[in-house]
Structures are given as structure tokens and as C-alpha cells.
Amino acid sequence: MHFTPLFLGALAALAPAVQAVGNATVINNCPFPVYLTWVGQCQGPEVTLNAEGGRYIETFTRDPVSGGIALKITRVQGGVSQGAPQTIYAYNLNNGLIWYDLSEVFGSPFAPNALRLAPSDITCPTIFWPSGVSPGGSQVRNCQENSTVTLTLCA
User: Fold this and answer.
1) Domains of the chain, each with CATH number or no CATH
2) Collapsing DSSP states into helix, strand and coil, what is residue 109?
3) How is 33-60 classified by DSSP, letter by letter?
4) What is the pTM of this model?
């Protein structure tokens, strides 16, 4: 049986497109450990990111109930349950885009250290807090879902 290039091209167009999904990454460049808790419809276990190079990486996912995921980061072990100051890297995977945000509650745990939330795709916007304090207003940005979006603490 012989297939023409036109037929093969049409067949390929019918096949579902498979696109890799990127990652949410947190890098701790601070001289102290930090504590990260994953929160969606439920709360995951706390993860310690060691000082000067500790990393956390997860593949972007969509929470079936809340939609979004929050990576809550404190300087205090058990800080999320204790109401300690938190920096929150939130994301939502939706319709081929990754929506990402940086916010804080109960204070600014990384002041005066810089925070940078940057996608691997340099055409997408970066969020940068030079003094580790939210400038206020909406910090929501978006990029293609196959981008890795990295929060660097003490950037």
C-alpha cells in the first residue's frame, strides 16, 4: 500500500496534539532554610528547601475543585498552620496557558531580599519585587503552558 504525502499530512492533522506542560519551580538562594506547603483543594505536606540552593519542582497541574494551586512559603517551620508571614506563588493551568501570581499574607517574610518570578519563555512577563515586598495591585501574569515558571528567593 502506498500513501501520498498529502494523505499523510491530512492524517497527521487529525491526530491529537501532544504538548508538554511546564513546571513550577522554587529556588532558595537565601542564607536560611525556607518551608513550602502545597495548597489546592487540600493541603500537602511541608517541604524544607535548604539554604543557598534548595529547590522544589512540580509539573503544572490543575486542581479539579479549586482550579489553582498555591505554593505557600514561610521562614518558619510549620508557618502556614501558625499564620506566619507567607509569600505565595500561585498558578492556574487553563486552556493552554499558565496563569501565575505572587502575593503575600501576614507580612513580608523575605524583606529586604529580592524575589523574582520568571518564566522560561523570555517573551512572557516577569514579576520582580526588589525589596521582597509586594508593590500592591494585581500581580497576575500568563504564559504558554509549556513554560517553566521559577520563583527565586533572595534573587
Assistant:
1) 19-153 (2.60.110.10)
2) coil
3) -EEEEEESSSEEEEEEE-TTTEEEEEE-
4) 0.86
